[in-house]
Design a protein that fits this description.
Largest sheet: 4 strands, antiparallel
Radius of gyration: 21 Å
Shape: globular
Structural class: alpha+beta
Helix content: 25-40%
Number of domains: 2
Length: 366
């Protein structure tokens, strides 16, 4: 998660200034819940120009180039990138496009994060760069039309650690595809974009019915769009893997290419504002009951109190520029309290996580 730390502030406090958002672009997004979602749909539909399927390969030269990890200008493929070392293989833009493939590292093609089999390859969703990305052809084939999920015992693992197997998250037990942690938030925000941009199309009778395939996560409505378990999964990934510089660059390049933006990159807080009624059935509301005091503090320390019914997996304290100051896992509370001492004067971000969600609080030490 190295790429994320420097951008925690943009995710949890503000995002304007890090993104090249046109002035007034979101000025009509004034509602909440699914009203807000429709307002966003109208914003990102206006100006969206379908550039065609073939043009994506050219667009990837600026939207999906590795200037963030090895910095070698190769194709940035979420299914083969190794963020912590050398990639297992690389592709050069413009060469080895699929075509046929037999194994990994044969060729790369275009992966629809929301499978085009579910919308029968209709346009403009088939050509929409905000959810169509370059990936290794073989791993793309392994992903097939499976939804995303979390896998404990994979039937197949790609060279960068992406997995196929039975889902272990929430209520769904079918086959899913799990990408590596580095890109889970990226994928979640692409799927939230898709649910928003195409909310008028997802209940089309020509689309694969949510009851006709156990792998289709659509719930049959154009407001919520996805099943409850899928919303919760995507929100978990969205919060645990915040917006990165890579996503900001990609969003800006996508805007140049086809004239619209992903609002959940520009304004990550929109996710909870739109789907809050689904998410409130989880522990997110309970997380808000966590108390941190004193705040502001003049004692160089803070105390965190956790409600009895709430299980916490990790607490992390970051400086305002994203440096990790303190981390505690597998927490054993004494009287449901934990104290962090010897803090220097300044502004901090305290992130508290459970297995499905997280919350971040701004801390001031005077």
């Amino acid at each position: 998660m190295v790429k994320k730390l420097a951008f925690l502030l943009s995710f949890f406090i503000f995002s304007i200034g890090f993104s090249q958002i046109p002035s007034g672009y979101y000025s009509s997004a004034t509602g909440s819940g699914y009203t807000l979602k429709t307002q966003l749909k109208n914003i990102i539909s206006n100006g969206h120009i379908d550039q065609g399927y073939g043009a994506l390969y050219t667009a990837y030269q600026t939207s999906d180039t590795d200037i963030f990890y090895e910095n070698d200008n190769t194709v940035l493929d979420m299914y083969s990138e190794n963020p912590n070392g050398l990639d297992p293989y690389n592709y050069t833009h413009g060469s080895r496009q699929c075509g046929n493939y037999n194994s990994e590292n044969d060729c790369y093609n275009r992966e629809h994060i929301f499978p085009q089999g579910f919308f029968n390859s209709q346009t403009p969703m088939r050509t929409d760069i905000h959810h169509v990305v370059p990936t290794d052809g073989s791993v793309n084939g392994r992903r097939s039309n499976y939804p995303f999920g979390e896998v404990s015992n994979p039937s197949h693992t790609s060279q960068n650690g992406s997995k196929v197997g039975s889902n272990t998250f929430d209520s769904f037990t079918g086959i899913v595809f799990e990408p590596i942690d580095e890109f889970k938030g990226d994928i979640a925000r692409m799927l939230f974009y898709f649910a928003t941009r195409y909310e008028n199309e997802v209940t089309d009778a020509t689309w694969d019915s949510p009851n006709s395939s156990t792998s289709n996560p659509l719930n049959g409505t154009n407001n919520q769009v996805y099943d409850d378990w899928y919303i919760k999964l995507l929100y978990k990934w969205h919060t645990q893997d915040p917006v990165s510089q890579r996503e900001i660059v990609r969003n800006n390049e996508a805007y140049k290419f086809q004239g619209n933006r992903n609002p959940f990159i520009d304004h990550p807080e929109y996710v909870n504002q739109v789907w809050g009624t689904v998410l409130s059935t989880d522990n997110i509301v309970s997380l808000k009951n966590i108390k941190v005091y004193p705040n502001p503090s003049s004692t160089n320390s803070i105390t965190i109190t956790i409600p009895n019914e709430l299980s916490i997996s990790k607490i992390t304290l970051y400086s305002v520029i994203g440096s990790k100051i303190y981390e505690e896992k597998n927490i054993n509370f004494i009287k449901n309290r934990i104290r962090i001492k010897d803090l220097k004067s300044g502004v901090y971000l305290l992130k508290i996580e459970n297995t499905t969600s997280s919350i971040t609080k701004k801390i001031i030490i005077r």
